[in-house]
Amino acid sequence: MDSMAYVMGWNDYLNDPNSEEKPSNAIMARYDLLSTPRAAGGIDSKASSINTLKTVGMIARVGPTYGGEGVDAFCWSGVRTFHEGHPDCFDFVFAPVGAKM
């Protein structure tokens, strides 16, 4: 399950030749990291398996991916837009979500 979660959140755009050094070209795209940022890209990750469904349901992480060179957690600090009710930074980890089957 850890390896699937890793793949679902993959964005190593500075080292992955398939990304062509663009954070928007990764599996978990981050358009906010472009030189001209846009409010677009992957916003969460969810994964499950038969065994996970039987025990906790699924695992999920809220917010854009982070970690690794040039991929910091998304933070509203410095962004001039309305975001009441959101945390400042989306630096969440994968956690069990849902009901087991």
From TrEMBL:
One of its GO terms (biological process) is phospholipid catabolic process. One of its GO terms (cellular component) is extracellular region. GO terms for molecular function: phospholipase activity. Keywords: Glycoprotein, Hydrolase, Lipid degradation, Lipid metabolism, Signal. InterPro entries: PLipase_B-like (IPR007000). Its EC number is 3.1.1.-. It comes from the Eukaryota. Transmembrane segments: none annotated. Putative phospholipase. Belongs to the phospholipase B-like family. PANTHER family: PHOSPHOLIPASE B-LIKE 2-RELATED, PHOSPHOLIPASE B-RELATED. This is Phospholipase B-like.
